[in-house]
Amino acid sequence: MGKHSYGVILDAGSSGTRVYVYRWKNAASARASASPDELDRLPKIHTDKKWRKKVHPGVSTFGSRPEDVGPEHLAELVEFALDIVPADEVANTPIFLLATAGMRLLPDEQRALVLDNVCGYFRENTGFQLPDCDLHVQVIPGETEGLYGWIAANYLLGGFDAPEDHAHGGGHHTYGFLDMGGASAQIAFAPNATETEKHAEDLKLLRLRKVNGENLEHKVFVTTWLGFGANEARRRYVEELLEAYPGSKELPDPCLPVGLMVTTSGEELDSDSPALIGNDPHLVGTGKFAECLKRTYPLLEKDVPCLDEPCLLNGIHTPAIDFNVNHFVGVSEYWHTTHEIFAMAHKDKAYDFQTYQKQVTELCSRGWDDIEEDIEDRKWGKKVDEKTVEEVCFKASWLINMLHDGIGVPRVGLETGKEISDGTNTTHSVIDNAKDRGFLDPFQAIDKIDGTEVSWTLGKMVLYASSQMPAAEEEEDKALAVGFGTNTPGLPDFQYPSIRLPSPTTNDTTATTQDWHSRLLSSSYSRRGPGILIFLLILALAAYLLCGRDRRATLLSKLRRSSSGPTKRPGGKPSTSLASKLFGSSSSSSGPAYERVLEAGGSRASDSDSDFELASLTSLDDPQRTGRTSGWATPANRALSPDFARGSPKHKGGGYFDVPAGASGAAGEQGLGITAFERGGLVGRTESREKLSAAGLGAGGGGRRSRTPGSGRAGKESVE
Asked: What are residue 248's phi and psi, to 5 degrees?
């Protein structure tokens, strides 16, 4: 393993899927070369604009043919990622596909089939690490998307690593996060101390881990407003226009430049378009932006009853926002709508509401023919096309209403925030010119920070990378897992970035065994089964050839007797086959189930106190066993369940592999569950003669003694 770790995330949106590749130093390398200041920070994530690629359309379009999502959609993105990740790091590199709005709209059955085929394609056609499909391939809710965005923004701005440089007052040093897509909008912020205490049950508890192994916790409020994305808001707006002008063919639209004609679905119409001949209604721009603001205001749904005060939009509860300490950054539509055409309204990063509204009003009041000439002359750059300018007047009015009348962001240039003392979201007006205050203003629209795109995928990878940092030595025994969940003790909804796989570089025997077991079952090893079988066959053949001619003859003779069934001995008792000696007789024979352990030397368990002794066979009805064991019996410790292996909140207070309360022995004390060797299982336990002797097994007397089920292996077995 090299000094760097990699991660691959596919953002499966409604219009397409974009792959991102990230890199960071693994724990050993980061700690070896880090300064004290760097040790006290989160892992440093690196990416590049050349490390992302997007393909169209979205995975949701494969709902009716999920078997094609791999070869027709994912293959190109996977190959792109494999060209970036070093070949010897692929098996250690996790891959995620996290879907958002488009996949949420699919029927449950289609959505499940698409996700299953995505996982199957990754496992069959890539060597990337994919230990759990439920964690790595899923549709994430809007709240999770917003939380990841909040992590990304604060990670890049320094709210986590340099709190002293971002003191907003009242001990507050993180930034609020606003995101708006086509279908929904999200908000995420850490309320002030008063609101945090008042609305504790509404917050998410987020836990990260620094390079030095120390935990970093934040309590964040996150919510999503479905239908409040720019495209869905426009759809609702057009529906209201149709209701306001029933039966009319030509609908005046103040949110379009003067003279622009479009269909109700937004397609531009020429003066000689055949669509104008029919009876279908169409929209004609009047360019009255002040009226546009008034018509889009009702879309905020401020009149919906609030059942849990306070609320912002659509009756959805939101703790009061104190804009003296809560400073927000906005991405996606907040950036595109304010910058693609009106970038000068944000000179030196200062969002000036007065300047922005003035520029939008001037543009939207112009004739469409004049605007088209500016587009052809690339007045706003080659990326701004007709569609962008057609939509910008409505989007600008929606953004202004969302920010200032919906969320309550003070209008910089006209007003500042008022300290919240009555539990409501409000602002008051004062005369104040916009200042170049950077990110200390109540709102800034951003796209990149220091050249890195502010994407929720970065937040997801920051969370994963920090989970790979081992806990500080003094906290290993009580280390809490990295992830997020409800800020209410006892609720089992904590979500983990992934299943933690122990480091293959550890010298701990137990960790190495567990690592081998986990990696063997993981997707990157699933196709190596034939090779392992061939290796075992070669090993068996070598042992057969080395055991000598006489022993080979004896072995073959016993195998022949075994295959031909039991034969009678002179005394009338059936002879015991080699299989029954090794694995126990299936009959209820009165003789011992295991006659001897090793053929060599003729040593029997009863001959010496120091010889091996096998445990008695546990009944199939034993609830601690999930299948009949082979002769190589093991302590009947409880097997790891999926929730248990992930460090489920059902077993709080330890790492990912803690055993449930009541497990006995050293393994239970140290937090590592050991499974019995089941039919089809992979892990067997044996003890050396010295350990068995030290435990007092087989001591004195002629009777056989078996190891007590549930006894654990001595020695520390610490797995984070």
From this structure: -80, 140
